Amino acid sequence: MATEQISVSELCAAAKVAAPVLARAPREVKDAALNALATSLEVRSDQLIEANALDLAAGEAAGLSAALLDRLLLDPDRIAAIAAGARDLAALDDPVGELIEERKLDNGLELRKLRVPLGVVAVVYEARPNVTIDASALCLKSGNACLLRGSGSAEHSNAMMVEIAADAADSVGLPRAVITLVGGGRDQLAELATQQGVVDLIVPRGGEGLKAALEQVATIPVLYAASGNCHVYVDRAADLQQAAAIALNAKIQRPGVCNAAETLLIHRDVADEFVPLIVDRMIEAGVEVRADKAAREFAGEARATALVDASEADWRTEFLDLILAVKVVDSVDQAIEHITRYGSGHSEAIITDDDDAARSFELAVDAACVYVNASTRFTDGAEFGMGAEIGNSTQKLHARGPIGLRELCTFKYVISGDGHVRG
Amino acid sequence: MATEQISVSELCAAAKVAAPVLARAPREVKDAALNALATSLEVRSDQLIEANALDLAAGEAAGLSAALLDRLLLDPDRIAAIAAGARDLAALDDPVGELIEERKLDNGLELRKLRVPLGVVAVVYEARPNVTIDASALCLKSGNACLLRGSGSAEHSNAMMVEIAADAADSVGLPRAVITLVGGGRDQLAELATQQGVVDLIVPRGGEGLKAALEQVATIPVLYAASGNCHVYVDRAADLQQAAAIALNAKIQRPGVCNAAETLLIHRDVADEFVPLIVDRMIEAGVEVRADKAAREFAGEARATALVDASEADWRTEFLDLILAVKVVDSVDQAIEHITRYGSGHSEAIITDDDDAARSFELAVDAACVYVNASTRFTDGAEFGMGAEIGNSTQKLHARGPIGLRELCTFKYVISGDGHVRG
After folding, report:
1. A396 and B24: CB-CB below 8 Å?
2. Which of A361, B19, B296, B421 has the fewest Cβ atoms surrounding its Cβ within 10 A?
3. Gap between the Cα atoms of B294 and B329, Å rounded
């Protein structure tokens, strides 16, 4: 594809030139582009499936696992779902131009704080080719030119998708360079991550390896769509049937995602009843349970052989799999201490009917999302009513939790006077 | 002082332990600490002035300039002003716990987005010792433990101020470690800037040298309280008397600060009348005018000898002095182009009675603060009604413009259900 003949710096510079045009585009133009993109994905789905077949063949030849090949696969249903996502975005409110605050200062100046696009946003991601369109569409709606750096294993699929997206932009009079694919290896990633004054933000969606690689080289702002080591704490005042349902949902409903629970903490006062109950339910659901000594004792001898001994490493691990670490704690404070030590600041839940325990947990747990009597699985832009998201941030600056349209924006103050000077 | 025997990492670790106590302190406790701090500064002003005398003597011996010695000086009036600042902060609303958003999701979950402290904030600054108390007080009110790294030239003054501040915290039952002085050289700065998981934010207040030093080493989030290359653009539809008053105010009212104007752009259609007018006023005010060729021609031969030829470097320079670069442009678009190329994204003003020109400028200029018919000098937390500030950010992420109490906070989502699981 053409992108490989042009340097990363040149692609970024072209995106920066295109960015102000998109930043000032009215809502109707952006929504028309999103709808054109959705229609074109469906109309050109054969082309896209052909391109995807090349990636799948290369992946098979390279010995990719069945799971990775499945992540790579595009079929008519998946393409329809991606198109529906773009249409859903078109229906959402435009974040650009939103009035965040407005006030008249004592001196008569009129101050408005307005939401505006960041400018140029780079998204770095791994195999799943649907991210190419999801990220393009989010950036388009939020008025940001985007640079997309997908996995080499999806290069044909990604190139075709970016062609379709740039065509859609072009069809409504926007510059094609508002959506650009960036290829290459580690050197090109480093080039992208050091475009100070050109690229305003880089969002990596991927594992710890990608994060570590970027931490080494990035000089532009980075917003990590991070991993989650999430906990469910069953308090002594919990409704145990409710607690079991939530723990099970948090672990098994979709174990491979960042808001799935990895460790279950159980108050000692209910461990005698709850540990056997939850161990049986988890094992029945195919979950490997790694229990501390106390939890193994509460499980009883009959279940002992079905349990794995939990190690220190298990408290730190985001399994992203049907594995659950289980620990017995003496108090809500001990649960909070454990979470403070091992949690990644993503999503943490307490199950309790005791308002004081709930309040302590809410205040003391330093995480993007703190749940009371609900599953950690709800941490999601769509679930939160924010629309689509590009990932979840566990950083404390700028965006925490779901990174949606507003989180892809900054703001400016516009101050109007009639000759005001400072005295 | 004791701080020099303990490593930076140990000081940071102690601040992190103290931080949750401060984060959960009620407003009354924080305000009592601020008022105690103000009173103690006044009561102990002799002690403080003695400590300051040691710094002044060392500064004189080291040959510091009169301007730097003046920046270092503490006298009863300055101490009273610092104390008043702490009392003013006590009177402001508590940002911690503010409800940013609240909504009931379709599934019945109650979602609240609450403002919470960042945790541990480090502030790095230069000679002015008043920053020690200003930063301590801002962090205290916003619920953040702070690490203060002032200039070596103010070490005795800073140590005494931190002692007073920590005593004030102690007097209301807060841990002394919520306010900590960090000394040492470049190695210690690097140690501070790499405290991942311990220090949540580092705010450098200082020149480009400090910024460059931190960009090299920092691995924790940095919010630069940045410099400003600010412009005033006089449109063809400007009221020229108003324009002259604003340009003069923006340049001379306090030339050494980041929101002072450095370049004046003048529309060609009014240059014949406005250039002579403003050149005379600026020169009368003691300003050195560096003019481009067109501006020199419009100034007329009689003034030519009083003008300096502007060079490319002048468009890029934050003079922070009684120097003004002047350029004639053909249109508002050309003014915007110049600002896009040379501005630092701080504060930019247009003077015009033409609503279309004002609207174009507001939309297209990518800066924290965009002014219409007002001086750039208003960019300031107190002027904006935000209370005190720790500086002004020209970054686009997290905080843009004045960094006040809210900007020193993050948020968390608290989600309450009654057994909600995701389907």
Report:
1. no
2. B421
3. 9
- 3-state class of A155 per DSSP? helix
pLDDT of A47 higher than 90:
yes
A290 CB-near residues (< 8 Å, 6+ apart): A307, A308, A309, A310, A311, A314, A323, A324, A325, A326
CA distance A179 to A12: 11
Residues of B in contact with A414 (CB under 8 A): 362, 369-370, 372
Q: Which domains does chain B show, CATH number per domain?
A: 2-225+403-415 (3.40.605.10), 230-379 (3.40.309.10)
Q: Are B310 and B297 in contact (CB under 8 A)?
A: no
Residue identified by tokens 């678009």 is B333
C-beta atoms of B412 and A372 within 8 A? no
Beta carbons of B397 and A410 less than 8 angstroms apart: yes
Cβ A226 vs Cβ A395: under 8 Å: yes
Alpha helices in B92-196 (DSSP H): 130-141, 155-171, 186-192
Residues for chain A: how many in total? 423
Which residues of chain B neighbour A421 with C-beta distances below 8 Å?
A: 245-246, 248-250, 253, 374-375, 377
Chain A residues closer than 8 Å to B379 by CB:
413
- Residue type (1 letter), B106: D
Q: Hey, what are B273's tokens?
A: 């009348």
Q: Which amino acid is at A313?
A: A
Contacts of B412 in chain A (CB under 8 A): 366-370, 400
Contact B419 A364 (CB under 8 A): no
Integer Cα distance of A138 and A122 in angstroms: 12
Nearest-by-Cβ selection for A413 from B106, B109, B368: B368
Q: Is the pLDDT of residue A6 over 70?
A: yes
Q: Which of B143, B136, B154 is nearest to B64 (CA)?
A: B154
Q: Which of B246, B370, B375 sits opposite A414 (nearest CB)?
A: B370
Extract the tokens encoding B23: 């984060």
**Is A419–B373 a contact, with Cβ atoms under 8 angstroms apart?**
yes
Residue B231 bridge partners (DSSP):
B263, B348
CB contact under 8 A, B422 and A375: yes
B203 strand-pairing partners = B123
Look at the block and give the residue holding tokens 């002594």.
A236
Judged by CB atoms closer than 8 Å, whether chains meet at A372 and B416 is answered as: yes
Residues of B (208-247) whose Cβ lies below 8 Å from A: 215, 219, 221, 223, 239, 242, 245-246
**A252 and A276 Cβ atoms separated by less than 8 Å:** no
pLDDT digits over A230-256, tens only? Answer: 999 999 999 999 999 999 999 999 998
What residues contact A357, with CB distance under 8 A and at least 6 apart?
A: A235, A237, A332, A350
Tell me what pLDDT residue A1 has: 45
**H-assigned helices in A44-75:** 45-61, 66-72
Mention every residue, 6+ apart, whose C-beta is less than 8 A from residue A194: A217, A218, A219, A220
Question: Could you say which residues of chain B have pLDDT below 70?
Answer: 1-4
Instruction: Count A/B contacts: CB-CB distance under 8 Å.
Output: 186
Q: What is the pLDDT of residues B225-274, one digit of tens each?
A: 878 999 999 999 999 999 999 999 999 999 988 999 999 999 999 999 99
Q: What pLDDT, on a 0 to 100 scale, did the predictor assign at position A17?
A: 95
Contacts of A248 in chain B (CB under 8 A): 421
Q: Give the H or E element holding residue A235.
A: none
Per CB-CB distance under 8 Å, the chain B contacts of A374 are 109, 415-417, 419-421
The SS3 of residue B325 is strand
Nearest chain B residue (CA) to A380 = B422
